[in-house]
Amino acid sequence: MDGVTVHADTSTETSQGPEGSVRAERPVLRVAGLSKRFGGTQALEDVDLDIAPGEIHALMGPNGSGKSTLIKILAGYHHAEPGAVAELDGEPFDLGQVTDSRHDRLRFVHQELGLVNELSATDNLALSRGFARTALGNIRWPEMERRTTALVERFGLGIDVRRPLSTATPVQRAVVAIAAALQGWEGRRGVLVLDEPTAVLPPGEVARLFDIVREVRDAGAGILYVSHRMDEIFALADRVTVIRGGRRIATHRVTELTPRSLAELMAGQEMETTHRTRLPVSSDEAVLEVRDLWAGPLRGIDFSLARGERLGITGLVGSGHEVVPYAVCGAYTGPVRGRMRLPERSERWVAAKDAGGSGIPLVPADRAGEGVIGDFSVGENLTLPLLDRLRARAGRLHRRRESSLAEEWIQRVGVRTAGRGARITTLSGGNQQKVVMARCLAQQPPVLVLCEPTAGVDIATRLQLYDLIERQADDGMGVMVSSSDTEDLLALCTRVLVVRDGRIVREISGGDITEPALIHAMEGIV
Amino acid sequence: MTSTPTRSAGLPPTGPDVPAVSAARTPGALGRRAAAALSFRNIGAVYVWLLIAVLFSVWAPDTFPTVTTVKQVLNGNAVAGLVALSVVLPLAARVFDLSVAFTMSLTSVLTAYFLVHTGLGPGTAIALAMTAALLIGVINAIVVVVLRVDSFIATLATGALIQSLITMVTDDSSITGVRLLAKPFANIAQLDAGGITLPVLYLLLAATAIWFLLEHTATGRRLYATGFNANAARLQGVRTDRLRFLTLVASALLSGVAGVVFVSSVGSGSPTAGTPYLLSAYAAAFVGATQLRAGRFNAWGTVIAVLLLGTGITGLGLATSAQWAASLFTGSVLIVALVLTGGRIALPAVLRRRKSPRHGVRPLADGSVTVPDEEV
What we know:
heterodimer, A: alpha/beta, Rossmann fold, 3 domains, 6-stranded mixed sheet, 17 helices, 22% strand, disordered N terminus, B: mainly alpha, ABC transporter involved in vitamin B12 uptake, BtuC, two-stranded antiparallel sheet, 15 helices, 66% helix, globular, disordered C terminus
């Protein structure tokens, strides 16, 4: 890949020779020449990977790079193309078969954790390893509970092993999943595979998970840690392998990398995500004013959004920042108090609980669950809120106007699709997000409200979305972005409000928006 | 509004990557569209129907391929078609209405009761029976939409309530009377033109109305959106609760009409008139959802399915005297249809005419697409 200029030499070096003194040991897992095709798509091509005992090896790549396929092949869910070599602690094993010895050495914690939340920790652990029974066949509960308690206590987790996991916190569930994966594994030379384990964790609890992962490493296991979050890689990993487009791009010691060089490896080209012009807003003409807003965790917040401004709202999960867009758009399901107005439309204040009447569209956080209608085509998704405009005689839908409207917006926001008739789920996450945004823009809203706009979007499309959002603001729209991803805020916002415990605790604008400033304000560090 | 995004120039950042999407009306495109329209994937049930017709023509050459059979299939399945259509709208919004069969029984016995035992005129009797159907629809809707009980179990429960009402009215025996067979009332279902009776016309009218609603109005699009992803639809301003409410009222009314037509055609109000129609209605709706608009419950697909089922049952009746054959046929077709709509098995490759443009994307029988575990 020509894009990788600076690190091209180092990558070849690391892939060929053993890595100096630290990695001289025999790798606990080694795969080489791994390829996989799905129909006409080359999901993986000649990928090599080795994991040393006692190292945390991160596997990184943008969406669609082949990370999950690689994990699924290791788990035996997919079969690799013939010709691949795989060794566990020097012993070759067949990637096409799940044998006991493979199961003993390779353990997985999948992204959704694979737990049954209605059952207790004891039950969940027993699901994979079976129950202790008496001669009559009934379960010996006291022994099961003792075993489970011993396992989870190792991680400093005090939970009632009898209560359903739905009552546990996310990090407790993650620990139970790790404990379940590590059952009967003590002292073995093996690899624990963690597939984006922090995706389901609130940011405050990530550090605890990291401690646990380090503990497992220090016990001598190798850890394959799949993630697309760079901050986690730098906080946790010893080495990182970057794959993109199904190919291994490079393997590096993390200490050799900077966030910037890693981003370049991921994106395949010189990427500038964090430094953008943040001109102070020239106009202070407000397009949205919100006063004393109470909704869910929110405890009376006030803010104004000016024309041309890109206002970020952030905080830790549960702080209430994620509720603000829903409340402003009238989409919050619980009780809402407060008032708001759109000065351009009317000087009158309206109750925030009637915000739905203002018709501010929302780009929701959960794209699959709330954003797109998976069984609809791209065009149908685009025009859903616009149908009233497309009415012809006798309530008939004006099909020609509908298709030209869809075409127009597909072109305008640059959706990559086989056509407006293609099912929306055939598009990548980023392109689906463009459709959702286009749908909002087509309503000609006074303000654009986005929630986690780049969740699950690869870096290249992310930049396109940033451009698109920025253009709307430059054209005079007020843009409000609620995000827990500091990258979004750094790249996008001219001003950021930090919410903590339901209140706005800090306002940061212009050049003062930096990662440390944001994190300090979010965590409440003065 | 000044804040309207007006700068269209430079908006597509991926110029060459954006494929031309205009549906050119070239002869080639027309041919492809015709081929797609006639493909097995699109109208498989029609081919199965033709195959069945040929089979029975060979099996029972004297009785099956006759005009009488055609009339019998059409006339005999009009009521079944109305009941089947009544569940299409709720199903489009992912609501089950299992009470339709009971509603149909109720309007049939109520119409008969008012005509025979109270001496009311046909118009009044029908109006009262339909009012009862409307009430049932509203009650169903309140239980399902307002009280948020799962529609499957809720309408099963209201169905039991309706059955008890039916037993109250009829004392569990059919209501018969000469007024049910007399002219003005009997005409509703028995008047014919060239051997095709009026209920066939009702069926066509109902199917046209539902087709127009679902395919050509904003309401129809919103109904499908509600069925596919109610959360997303709600965020886009679709009033999902109101739509679900209305579909339950509509299904009660249409099945009520089926009951009135039924009592007029058989001349007696039976307390179990609707029961046999429940299974075939759902069978038809689900088979119908694999046709024409794959993956969407739709009117004409349902009508095709009703005729397919009706032809099969009529043919079996003519070719054999086995009483068990009809249920066997309906049950088998239903299972096949459910398997297909459930997307658990894809059609054999030979039958899949339209190749999906994306690699590795497997179009299923219900039109859904699964990407086989590429990258999550």
